[in-house]
Amino acid sequence: MIRAIVTDDSPATRRILISILKRISIEIVAEADNADQAVAACLEHTPDLMFLDVVMPGETGVDVLRRMRAQESGIGVIMVTSVSDRDIVECCREQGAIGYILKPFRHTRIVADVTRLCVERGLLVPPPTSGEDPTDA
Known about the structure:
Layout: E1 2-7, H1 11-23, E2 26-32, H2 35-45, E3 49-53, H3 61-70, E4 76-81, H4 86-94, E5 99-102, H5 107-120
Parallel strand pairs: 1-2, 1-3, 3-4, 4-5
Helix pairs in contact: 2-3
C-alpha cells in the first residue's frame, strides 16, 4: 500500500484530501499542520508521498521542500495549494516537487493525477491498456 503524509494548516482541507486519498487506497500515516511537524512526520514514518500545502504560517511548503531535498529523503512531494502563480509552480518543481494539485479540489482530477504520479514513481503498476492481456508475461 502507498503510504502518505498530508500537510496543510487547514483541518478541513486535510479532511477532504484524506477522504479522497483513502478512496484510492492510499494509507495516511500522519497529518501535519506546519513545516516542523511535516519534516518530523517524514523522518518518523518514511512515507512514499507527502501532500504539502504551499502557504502555511511560519515556514512555507517551499521551505519544507528545501529541507527534504537537503536530506535526500526520496519522498515524492505533491504540492497542494490555491496558488497557481507560474513562478511558484516552477520554484516548487525546481525544489523537487513531483506534482501540483490546485484547490478547490476536484475528486476526479486528484485521482487521475495521483495515480499517474504513483505509476511514474513505480509505486503502482499501470493498468493494462485496451486489448492487453494482464496475464501475459
